Amino acid sequence: AEVTVTDLQELQELLVVNIENNKHLVTGSVRAKVLKWGEDVSEFQPPPDYILMADCIYYEESLEPLLKTLKDLTGPDTCVLCCYEQRTMGKNPEIERKYFELLQMDFELERIPLDQHDEEYRSEDIHIVNIHRKR
């Protein structure tokens, strides 16, 4: 696979270190790039086949920029796998609810049952959702 890992500018050095530390596991290519939610994604086109999201649902101000980026990045055949830890403290349940409510305006969701998660990493508070653009 040709993989692009993304984060903010201040975390690019850490991404490069992680790529270097794991290059013995890579059979394709991996590169690190800056991706700021809500901003232009033209350099990431054409749409990728897969987008893997991990712990991206955490504060309310990020929801709309995140959703804009998902809409801009995905094509009709892009598969988005979203993994997140369900948090029950503070505003977290409300933020999670709002995210999935907004997401369903443009995307279809399929929650992956816990018994289909990797046995070693499975946990009641870890959720995986398969997301596709609505047709």
From TrEMBL:
GO cellular component, one term: cytosol
GO biological process terms held by the UniProt record: methylation
Record-linked InterPro entries: Methyltransf_16 (IPR019410), SAM-dependent_MTases_sf (IPR029063)
Highest taxon, organism lineage: Eukaryota
GO MF entries: methyltransferase activity
Pfam families found in the cross-reference section: Methyltransf_16
Keywords: Methyltransferase, S-adenosyl-L-methionine, Transferase
Protein name according to UniProt: Protein-lysine methyltransferase METTL21D
Organism listed in the record: Buceros rhinoceros silvestris
